[in-house]
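Retro notes (design track)

What went well: tokenization of the new backbones is finally stable.
What didn't: we kept losing track of which sequence belonged to which structure.
Fix going forward: every design gets posted as structure first, then sequence, in one message. First example under the new rule, 221 residues:
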């Protein structure tokens, strides 16, 4: 979808007699945006979760308990499994993913070992992950389903989970031929990652503490 719209936009500009001036205006706007992005890098701190999206800075407001629970429950399970099996690196929340134009701080994400082994101490900007999870909130849902969905897709993220902590459900999207395709949407049963080899959990383990502890016990034994 994103690639098709991109091609349509390019063709619309090229079909216009004003194409040179339009391109010049775009270049000027992108240069101003680049300068804003550099100011963003200079101003952010360790205590604030902030993202730079299409030239705007978004400061995240405090989240509800169910959001924190879902993020924490999934991170614990995923990180434990990945560490035990030496599959790569799992990060969460305050690590910045710097893409071509935008900077995000996803709720949970995973890098395969080939990328993870290149990371260094002191690094604070990271490339596109192999697997991204966003937990919805009222203030972020439109971006999680909109610009982030398209950006992750365009940058080759292989798997994208959207977690709804209110509905207690997970949507699993897999990258196929350059596009995210919905593979699963459910609030119960098993969900199996296609990117993290061997990783599968009961969906309830993302929302329920007892189920989460049981999933951790299974991983550890």
């Amino acid at each position: 979808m994103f690639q098709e719209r991109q091609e349509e936009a390019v063709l619309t500009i090229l079909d216009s007699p004003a194409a040179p001036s339009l391109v010049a205006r775009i270049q000027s706007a992108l240069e101003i945006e680049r300068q804003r992005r550099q100011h963003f890098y200079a101003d952010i701190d360790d205590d604030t979760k902030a993202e730079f999206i299409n030239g705007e800075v978004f400061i995240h407001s405090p989240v509800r308990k169910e959001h924190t629970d879902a993020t924490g429950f999934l991170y614990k399970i995923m990180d434990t499994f990945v560490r035990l099996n030496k599959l790569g690196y799992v990060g969460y929340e305050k690590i910045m993913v710097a893409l071509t134009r935008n900077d995000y701080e996803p709720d949970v994400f995973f890098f395969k070992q080939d990328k993870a082994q290149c990371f260094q101490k002191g690094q604070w900007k990271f490339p596109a992950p192999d697997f991204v999870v966003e937990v919805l909130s009222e203030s972020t849902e439109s971006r999680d389903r909109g610009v982030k969905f398209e950006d992750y897709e365009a940058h080759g993220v292989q798997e994208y989970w959207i977690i709804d902590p209110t509905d207690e459900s997970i949507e699993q999207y897999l990258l196929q031929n350059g596009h995210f395709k919905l593979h699963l949407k459910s609030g119960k049963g098993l969900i199996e990652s296609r990117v993290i080899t061997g990783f599968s959990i009961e969906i309830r383990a993302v929302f329920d503490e007892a189920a989460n502890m049981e999933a951790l016990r299974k991983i550890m034994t």
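Added context from the reviewer: Helices lie at 2-14, 19-43, 65-85, 113-116, 141-145, 147-154, 209-220.
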